[in-house]
C-alpha cells in the first residue's frame, strides 16, 4: 500500500510582481480543490523567512509530503525552497516549482488569461509532484588546482588571490606577455595613478609566485570534464626561445641583423617598429623575447647568419626548431578573464580613421602619452609637430545603432583622463564631443568637474563627420569637426590639429568559439553571460566556470579587480568545501526491461553508457552521466529512467497542463 | 457563431537555452500571448516523441519544442538528436491530419528573449485561424 499523497500548494504574490497580473487568491482557491491538495495558501513573499516558515510549519502540522510553490523561475529560487523542505524534514526533491512570474505575470497583459495559465501550470505541478520520489544529491570531489584563462589585470588578480590562498594556479595567456590592455595605459582614472606602477609589481609577483604556473603565448584548445574535474588541453605556441634557459638579457634583440625595427609593433598600436626578435615592452612578463617567424629572415629564406644565436652563446636559449607543444592539466575550477577587443574605428568611416593621418584611436594616444611609449611621452602628430588643438570624439562604436548599441562604460572617463594628459603634455585646446557624460563611480564626477575647471571644452552633440575640406583659411590644413551643438542649437565647424576617437569595448572576435569551448552562453551583444546578474554575477551556467573582467561586460579597472576577487572567492569556496553537490537527475537502466538493443549507446555524448557482452544489457555510469535524458527518449522499451525527469512525471505534467478541469 | 476558443500550446523547453530565453523575456517584460504552457526538460534531446503524441492526444492545439542553437547544446549534441526525431515525427503528425503549423521546433538561445516572443506570437497567429484541432476520429469520419 503506497503512502497517502498530501500536497501543499503555495502561491506567491511577489509583492505586486505576480499579484498585479495574476489573481493569486483565485489560483490558491483553485489549487485547494485539486486532487491530493491538503493545504493551499497564498503569501506576499514566499521566498522570505516567514514564507519558508509557512512551508516548514505545514509539513509538520498537516503531515505534508509534497510541496508545490508557484512563484518565480526555478533558476532563481528552486534551491531556496528545496532547502526549506529539507529543514522542514522532507526530502528536498518532493518539490515542484511553478514559474508564474518570469513566464506568466511579467509577459502577459491579459489578467484572466494569465490567471488561467497560472492555474494550468499549478495543476500540472500538482499532478507531477505526486509521482516524485525522494532522491539524494550526488557529490563530486573538487580538485584544488585552478585554471585562469587570460592574463590581463583580471586574470592576474584572480591568479594571485588564489595562489596566496595556497592553491596551485595555471595562468594561460594568448599573447607573449601578461598585462593585457592595462599594460598599455599611462595613467588610470580618476586618481591618475601610474598604470605601470600598479600593474608591473603584480606581474612580477605572478612570475615569482611558487603556486603559479604561467604559460604565456599559449591557448586553451580543449576542455573536457565537469566541475571539480576538468581536463584542459593547452597549446603552447613556439616562441623559439626556451623560457627555462633564457635569462632575459635581451642581447639577442640587440644582435639581430636588422639594426633598426622594421615591422609593425603591435604593442605600440603600430606607432613604432620592432625587429623580428622582440619583447613586447620592457617590463613584459615573462622577460623572454619571442621570434616572429613571419618576419624573421631565417624562417623566410633559411639564409640568415643567426647573429641572435651567436649572441645567446653558451646559454643556448634560442631554438629555431621549436615546435608547438601541448600540455594537458587537471583542474577543479576555471576562471575566464579573456577581456575585450577595442572597436575597430574603420567601421565608423565618417570619422576618417585610416584616411586622415592625424585621426588617432584612444589606445594610440595612451601609447603616445606614455613615457615608455614610441615617442617617450612626447605627444606629436605624424609630421612631428605638436598639436595646438585636439578633438576627442566620444561614443565611437558605442551607443550607436549602426554598430554596437551598448555603452562601453569606460570611454567617458578615459576621454576625460586623456583630455587632462593631453593638456598637460601639449597645453593644446581640448574639445570633448559627447552625447552624455557618464561618470558613475567613486571620484568620477569630481574628476569631470576638475576637467571643466581646467578649461577643457565640452560640446554636447554626436559628431557628424571629420573632414579636411576647408571652408575658410582658418580651416586650411586642419581637420574640421562637423557637429550639431545640441546645447546651443546650431551646427558648428571646429578646426583642430588632432582627432582622438574614444573607441568602445566589444567582445573578442573569437568569443563565440571560446564560449563553445567552455560550454558557456553569451548575452545578445556577445559578452559571456553570467548565471544571474545579481545573485550569481561571476558564475556561469556551467558549474565550476567563473567570469572576471571585461569578457563579461565592459568595465573599468576597479570593477574588474573587484570581480576577479569575487571569482577567486567563488572558486575558493568550491575548493575548500572539497566537494560539490550535483543534481541527482541522472539516468539509469531498469535491467529487467532492457532488451539489449544498444540504441541508447551512440546517443550519449559523454560515453556514459556501456554494453555488457556478458549480460547483454546496457548500463549507465552514474559518474559520467550529466542528466540530459537523450538516451531516455531513445529507449524503445522504456527501460531507461531519469530521476526528476522520468517519463511518467513528464506525462503527468503534460496531462495536468492540458486537462481542463 | 460560437466564441473562438483560444488555442493552447504545449511548449517543451530545454533548461539551458529556451527556458532561460523565456525567463529573460520575463525579466525584460517582453509581452506575448498567454497561450503557451511550458514544460521544462534538461535538454531538447529528452523530448520523447511520445510526449508530442500524448500532448496532441490530450488536446493540445500546438506543440512547440525549444532547444539551443546547433553547436550550442549544453550536452554537446542533444539538440541534433532532437532535430532528427522532429523530422521523422513531423511527417507522422502530418499524416495524422494535424496541420504543419501546429508542430514546431525552434532554436532559441538564452539571450534571445525577443525571439521567443516572435516565435510564440507567430505560432499563435498561425494556429488561431485553424480553429480547435480536430481529433483523429473526427478527421477520418
Description:
The complex is a heterodimer of chains A (661) and B (141). Chain A has 661 residues and is of the alpha/beta class. Chain A has 5 domains: 7-135, Rossmann fold, CATH 3.40.50; 138-237 and 324-340 and 509-578, FAD/NAD(P)-binding domain; 251-315, no CATH class; 342-506, 3-Layer(bba) Sandwich (FAD/NAD(P)-binding domain); 587-643, Alpha-Beta Plaits, CATH 3.30.70.20. Helices cover 27% and strands 23% of the residues of chain A. A 5-stranded parallel beta sheet of chain A has the order 10-7-6-18-29, with helices on one face. Chain B has one domain (9-140): 3-Layer(aba) Sandwich (Rossmann fold). Helix content of chain B is 40%, strand content 16%. Chain B has helices at residues 18-27, 49-57, 78-95, 113-127, 136-140, and strands at 9-14, 36-41, 62-67, 103-107. A 4-stranded parallel beta sheet of chain B has the order 2-1-3-4, with helices on both faces. Chain B starts with 8 loop residues before the first strand and ends with a helix. At the A-B interface, helix 4, helix 5, helix 16 and helix 17 of A face helix 1, strand 2, helix 2 and helix 3 of B.
Key features of this structure:
heterodimer; A: 661 residues; Rossmann fold; FAD/NAD(P)-binding domain; five-stranded parallel β-sheet; B: 141 residues; alpha/beta; four-stranded parallel β-sheet
Class of secondary structure makeup of chain A? alpha/beta
- Total of DSSP H or I helical runs spanning 4+ residues of chain A: 17
CATH homology superfamily of the largest domain in chain A: FAD/NAD(P)-binding domain
Strand content of chain B: 15-25%
What is the percent of helical residues of chain B? 40-55%
Amino acid at each position: 500500500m503506497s503512502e497517502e499523497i498530501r500536497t501543499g500548494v503555495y502561491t506567491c504574490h511577489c509583492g505586486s510582481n505576480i499579484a498585479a497580473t495574476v489573481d493569486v487568491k483565485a489560483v490558491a482557491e483553485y489549487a485547494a480543490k485539486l486532487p491530493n491538495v491538503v493545504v493551499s495558501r497564498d503569501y506576499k513573499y514566499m521566498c522570505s523567512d516567514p514564507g519558508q516558515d509557512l512551508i516548514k510549519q505545514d509539513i509538520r502540522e498537516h503531515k505534508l509530503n509534497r510541496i508545490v510553490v508557484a512563484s518565480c523561475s526555478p533558476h532563481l529560487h528552486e534551491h531556496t525552497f528545496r532547502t526549506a523542505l529539507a529543514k522542514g524534514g522532507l526530502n528536498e526533491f518532493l518539490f515542484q516549482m511553478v514559474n508564474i512570474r518570469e513566464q506568466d505575470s511579467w509577459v502577459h497583459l491579459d489578467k484572466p488569461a494569465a490567471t488561467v495559465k497560472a492555474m494550468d501550470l499549478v495543476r500540472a505541478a500538482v499532478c507531477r509532484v505526486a509521482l516524485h520520489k525522494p532522491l539524494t544529491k550526488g557529490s563530486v570531489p573538487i580538485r584544488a588546482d585552478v585554471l585562469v584563462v587570460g592574463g590581463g589585470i583580471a586574470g592576474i588578480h584572480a591568479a594571485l588571490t588564489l595562489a596566496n590562498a595556497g592553491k596551485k594556479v595555471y595562468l594561460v595567456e594568448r599573447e607573449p606577455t601578461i598585462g593585457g590592455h592595462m599594460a598599455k595605459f599611462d595613467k588610470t582614472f580618476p586618481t591618475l595613478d601610474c598604470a605601470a606602477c600598479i600593474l608591473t609589481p603584480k606581474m612580477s609577483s605572478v612570475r615569482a609566485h611558487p603556486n603559479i604556473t604561467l604559460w604565456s603565448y599559449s591557448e586553451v584548445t580543449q576542455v573536457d570534464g565537469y566541475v571539480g574535474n576538468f581536463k584542459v588541453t593547452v597549446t603552447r605556441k613556439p616562441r623559439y626561445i626556451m623560457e627555462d634557459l633564457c635569462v632575459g638579457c635581451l642581447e639577442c634583440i640587440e644582435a639581430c641583423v636588422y639594426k633598426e625595427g622594421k615591422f609593425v609593433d603591435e604593442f605600440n598600436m603600430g606607432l613604432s617598429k620592432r625587429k623580428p626578435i622582440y619583447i613586447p615592452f620592457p617590463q613584459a612578463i615573462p622577460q623572454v623575447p619571442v621570434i616572429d617567424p613571419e618576419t624573421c629572415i631565417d624562417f623566410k629564406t633559411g639564409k640568415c647568419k643567426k647573429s641572435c644565436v651567436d649572441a645567446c652563446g653558451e646559454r643556448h636559449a634560442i631554438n629555431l626548431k621549436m615546435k608547438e607543444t601541448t600540455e594537458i592539466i587537471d583542474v577543479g575550477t576555471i576562471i575566464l578573464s579573456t577581456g575585450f577587443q577595442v572597436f575597430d574605428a574603420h567601421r565608423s568611416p565618417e570619422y576618417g580613421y585610416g584616411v586622415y593621418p592625424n585621426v588617432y584611436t584612444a589606445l594610440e594616444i595612451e601609447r603616445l602619452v606614455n613615457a615608455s611609449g614610441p615617442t617617450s611621452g612626447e605627444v606629436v602628430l605624424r609630421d612631428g609637430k605638436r598639436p595646438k588643438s585636439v578633438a576627442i570624439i566620444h561614443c565611437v562604436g558605442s551607443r550607436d545603432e549602426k554598430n554596437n548599441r551598448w555603452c562601453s562604460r569606460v570611454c567617458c572617463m578615459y576621454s576625460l583622463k586623456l583630455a587632462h594628459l593631453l593638456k598637460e603634455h601639449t597645453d593644446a585646446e581640448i574639445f570633448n564631443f559627447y552625447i552624455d557624460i557618464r561618470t558613475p563611480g567613486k571620484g568620477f564626477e569630481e574628476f569631470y568637474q576638475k576637467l571643466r575647471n581646467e578649461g577643457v571644452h565640452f560640446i554636447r552633440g554626436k559628431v557628424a563627420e571629420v573632414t579636411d575640406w576647408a571652408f575658410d583659411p582658418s580651416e586650411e590644413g586642419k581637420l574640421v569637426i562637423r557637429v550639431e551643438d545640441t546645447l546651443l542649437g546650431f551646427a558648428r565647424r571646429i578646426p583642430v590639429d588632432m582627432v582622438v576617437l574614444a573607441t568602445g569595448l566589444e567582445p573578442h572576435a573569437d568569443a563565440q568559439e571560446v564560449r563553445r569551448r567552455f560550454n558557456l552562453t553569451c548575452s545578445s551583444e556577445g559578452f559571456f553571460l553570467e548565471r544571474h546578474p545579481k545573485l550569481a554575477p561571476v558564475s556561469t551556467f556551467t558549474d565550476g566556470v567563473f567570469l572576471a573582467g571585461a569578457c563579461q561586460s565592459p568595465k573599468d579597472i576597479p570593477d574588474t579587480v573587484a570581480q576577479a576577487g569575487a571569482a577567486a572567492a567563488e572558486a575558493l569556496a568550491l575548493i575548500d568545501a572539497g566537494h560539490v553537490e550535483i543534481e541527482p537527475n541522472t539516468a539509469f537502466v531498469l535491467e529487467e526491461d532492457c532488451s539489449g538493443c544498444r540504441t541508447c549507446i551512440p546517443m550519449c555524448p559523454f560515453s556514459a553508457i556501456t554494453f555488457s557482452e556478458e549480460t547483454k544489457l546496457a548500463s549507465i555510469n552514474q559518474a559520467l552521466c550529466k542528466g540530459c535524458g537523450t538516451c531516455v527518449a531513445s529507449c524503445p522499451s522504456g527501460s531507461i529512467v531519469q530521476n526528476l525527469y522520468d517519463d511518467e512525471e513528464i506525462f503527468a505534467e503534460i496531462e495536468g497542463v492540458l486537462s481542463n478541469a | 457563431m460560437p466564441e473562438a476558443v483560444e488555442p493552447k500550446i504545449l511548449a517543451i523547453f530545454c533548461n539551458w537555452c529556451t527556458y532561460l530565453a523565456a525567463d529573460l523575456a520575463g525579466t525584460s517584460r517582453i509581452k506575448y500571448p498567454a497561450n503557451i504552457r511550458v514544460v521544462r526538460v534538461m535538454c531538447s534531446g529528452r523530448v520523447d516523441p511520445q510526449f508530442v503524441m500524448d500532448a496532441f492526444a490530450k488536446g493540445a492545439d500546438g506543440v512547440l519544442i525549444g532547444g539551443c542553437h546547433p553547436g550550442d547544446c549544453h550536452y554537446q549534441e542533444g539538440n541534433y538528436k532532437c532535430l532528427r526525431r522532429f523530422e521523422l515525427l513531423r511527417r507522422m503528425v502530418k499524416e495524422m491530419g494535424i496541420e504543419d503549423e501546429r508542430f514546431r521546433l525552434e532554436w532559441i538561445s538564452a539571450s534571445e528573449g525577443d525571439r521567443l516572443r516572435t516565435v510564440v506570437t507567430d505560432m499563435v497567429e498561425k494556429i488561431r485561424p485553424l480553429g480547435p484541432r480536430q481529433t483523429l476520429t473526427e478527421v477520418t469520419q
